[in-house]
Design the sequence.
């Protein structure tokens, strides 16, 4: 921040900053104007499901009861009946418990990133994880939930579609849409997902990002990028729900959480540049080793455990017992296959059993299965998880060749394998399963998802490609603008002296291991 203040005293630097910042604001304003103009021109009115209970849970009216109801419709329901008039306690408790599991993944991320970091930036990693969570919660409360899960248009939401905004969680219905889940429980569940996306980003930027810079880009990620682009796929009227030849599907977030988070991480790593002293393989060097594989491995297993909330919880229904069990098993098998594939793929290179590669391999399998977990078989989960375990190593090699410093492998794990997982639905979906509902699975013919390998043709694969590409490209462009805007303030990267001293001392005034003070970490 001091560097920024000093720069602002120079008239030439002030003019440059105002020109860049003004241009960014103008571009953002034009983007919003285009979004609202296009939507206003093409939008059509639609019914909104949260105003009535789901059809499968509403009792049918008998002929005897229908006559008096038709004669006096005004007296059919008291004005003070909740809208909708019930909250499903079983599904609400299921969503809350799985939300707690997803939230606990933050501990896994903090362990994982701290383990892959150097000792001199451990406190920085831990504090970023805590502060990003706090910041994300407030932003999701203020407008993030409304923008992502409110009705509005195909690009952004804001309320119930009847003139009431959901900003600061005002005017929310008792239950969300037709899920039968208390809306506030759904908010908590989705906040945990938003927090995951924000945390992914920091994995590629650790070791050289200033704390003020982390705060600024975190506001952009949690407050703007994630809820707006997430609405495209998960919003009640998101435009990707209606594309042709097949609607885009992302069950638990291979695109919405992981591709978005991994893509922002890539943009951050590009704009930041590599850590001081980082020498790449093509220059005769290699990746800097993490300081504690014990912590990193435990973090990965915590993340694996949290994924049992991430994927099974996305059914939003404890009543869909077969679907919940299938999702949990598929999640397990994909992680197993990803870890083993990465382990054995790397071994011939050095004749060593690589712990770091295996960790990222199992995480790659988990990321890949997140989209298709409801619609594939256990064998499909194993195959796509194994492919992810190989892809994460190849993605790491690609970044090394391009001289992009990603200490934790955030883009190979989340970005690249998020893309693969999304596309894999169009290949491995069996055509047996439809979608979860509050009372069980809807496996009717019009609801099932079938991929290319099961006779479904290329329609679903094309739909997945369109959806992932639209979100991925859009996020990358906006993320690059965001990172360069933060860089223009002089806060994105610490000074050379601060980086050499170590972020823990320079930014936070203390170190994680005071009993192990050495002259070099």
Sequence:
């Amino acid at each position: 921040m001091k560097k920024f203040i000093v720069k602002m005293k120079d008239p030439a630097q002030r003019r440059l900053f105002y020109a860049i910042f003004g241009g960014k604001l103008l571009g953002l304003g034009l983007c919003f104007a285009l979004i609202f103009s296009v939507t206003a021109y093409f939008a059509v009115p639609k019914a909104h499901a949260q105003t009535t209970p789901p059809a499968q849970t509403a009792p049918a009216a008998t002929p005897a009861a229908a006559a008096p109801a038709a004669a006096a419709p005004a007296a059919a329901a008291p004005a003070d009946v909740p809208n909708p008039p019930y909250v499903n306690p079983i599904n609400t408790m299921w969503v809350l418990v799985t939300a707690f599991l997803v939230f606990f993944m933050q501990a896994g991320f903090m362990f994982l990133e701290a383990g892959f970091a150097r000792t001199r930036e451990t406190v920085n990693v831990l504090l970023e994880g805590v502060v990003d969570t706090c910041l994300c919660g407030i932003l999701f409360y203020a407008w993030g939930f409304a923008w992502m899960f409110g009705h509005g248009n195909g690009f952004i939401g804001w309320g119930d579609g009847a003139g009431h905004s959901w900003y600061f969680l005002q005017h929310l219905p008792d239950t969300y849409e037709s899920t039968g889940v208390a809306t506030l429980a759904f908010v908590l569940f989705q906040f945990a997902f938003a927090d995951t996306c924000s945390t992914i980003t920091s994995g590629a930027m650790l070791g050289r990002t200033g704390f003020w810079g982390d705060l600024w880009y975190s506001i952009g990620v949690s407050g703007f990028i994630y809820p707006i682009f997430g609405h495209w796929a998960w919003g009640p009227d998101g435009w990707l729900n209606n594309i042709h030849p097949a609607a885009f599907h992302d069950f638990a977030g291979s695109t919405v959480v992981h591709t978005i988070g991994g893509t922002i991480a890539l943009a951050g790593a590009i704009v930041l540049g590599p850590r001081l002293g980082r020498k790449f393989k093509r220059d005769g060097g290699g990746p800097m080793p993490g300081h504690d594989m014990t912590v990193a491995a435990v973090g990965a297993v915590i993340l694996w455990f949290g994924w049992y909330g991430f994927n099974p919880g996305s059914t939003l229904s404890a009543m869909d017992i077969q679907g919940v069990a299938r999702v949990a098993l598929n999640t397990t098998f994909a992680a197993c296959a990803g870890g083993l594939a990465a382990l054995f793929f790397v071994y011939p290179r050095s004749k060593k059993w690589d712990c770091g590669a295996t960790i990222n391999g199992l995480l790659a399998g988990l990321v890949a299965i997140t989209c298709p977990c409801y619609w594939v078989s256990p064998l499909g989960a194993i195959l796509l998880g194994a492919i992810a375990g190989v892809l994460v190593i190849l993605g790491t090699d690609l970044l090394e060749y391009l001289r992009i410093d990603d200490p934790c492998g955030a883009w190979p794990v989340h970005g690249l394998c998020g893309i693969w997982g999304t596309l894999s639905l169009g290949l491995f979906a069996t055509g047996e399963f439809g979608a979860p509902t509050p009372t069980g699975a809807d496996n009717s013919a019009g609801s099932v998802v079938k991929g290319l390998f099961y006779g479904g043709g290329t329609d679903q694969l094309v739909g997945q490609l369109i959806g992932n590409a639209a979100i991925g490209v859009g996020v990358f462009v906006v993320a690059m603008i965001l990172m360069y805007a933060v860089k223009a303030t002089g806060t994105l990267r610490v000074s050379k002296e601060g980086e050499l001293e170590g972020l823990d001392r320079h930014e936070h005034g203390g170190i994680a291991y005071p009993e192990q003070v050495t002259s070099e970490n």
About this structure: The beta strands are 151-152, 157-159, 435-437, 440-442. The chain is about 60% helix and 0% strand.
